[in-house]
């Protein structure tokens, strides 16, 4: 009987620990439901900016020979999908300077395009994701 009582006490302690895990998982689940709409909005906005990037950067004759690392500008911004990938790098600020600097040096007006993208997506949308997770927990 004592062994059964010890097992029962262990089970109660485990349930208390799992309750905290349950609360965290439920908060994450509720955050994911709302976050799906935010991620869809980010994807839609990223696609709009990618279409603009193809027209402003990828098809720009003066940027045709500009190199971004080992790639040329048309290799990085020639299609909508390539532009989405390059803009995703900008959004995460992963090597953004290596992408932005050669373009802006050749076409300074594109600074406004790149900065507006970074301000809206990096400082706006990604911070909304963080705020959403914090709000739901």
Major sheet characteristics: 2 strands, antiparallel
What's the Cα radius of gyration? 24 Å
Task: Count up the domains.
Answer: 1
Number of strands: 2
* Assembly level: single chain
- Average pLDDT: 87
The span between the termini is 41 Å
Q: Output the helix-strand order.
A: HEEHHHH
* Low-pLDDT sequence parts: none
Give the CATH level 1 class. Answer: Mainly Alpha
Please give the count of helices.
5
Morphology call: elongated
The CATH topology corresponds to Helix Hairpins
Class based on secondary structure composition and strand pairing: mainly alpha
Instruction: Bin the helical content.
Output: over 70%
By CATH, the architecture is named Orthogonal Bundle
Q: Looking across the biggest beta sheet, what order are the strands in?
A: 1-2
Provide the β-strand percentage band: under 5%
Transmembrane segments: 12-31, 37-57, 110-134
Organism: Alexandrium andersonii
Membrane topology: Multi-pass membrane protein
Pfam family, one: Ion_trans
Summarize the structure.
With 137 residues, the protein is mainly α. It is built from five helices and two strands; from the N terminus they run αββαααα.
């Amino acid at each position: 009987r004592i062994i059964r009582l010890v097992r029962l006490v262990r089970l109660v302690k485990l349930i208390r620990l799992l309750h905290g895990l349950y609360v965290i998982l439920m908060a994450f689940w509720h955050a994911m439901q709302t976050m799906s709409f935010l991620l869809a909005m980010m994807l839609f906005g990223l696609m709009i900016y990618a279409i603009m990037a193809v027209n402003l950067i990828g098809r720009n004759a003066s940027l045709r020979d500009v190199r971004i690392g080992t790639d040329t500008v048309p290799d990085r911004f020639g299609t909508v999908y390539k532009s989405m990938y390059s803009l995703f790098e900008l959004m995460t600020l992963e090597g953004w300077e290596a992408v932005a600097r050669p373009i802006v040096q050749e076409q300074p007006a594109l600074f406004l395009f790149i900065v507006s993208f970074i301000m809206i997506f990096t400082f706006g949308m990604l911070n909304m994701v963080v705020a959403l997770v914090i709000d739901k927990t």
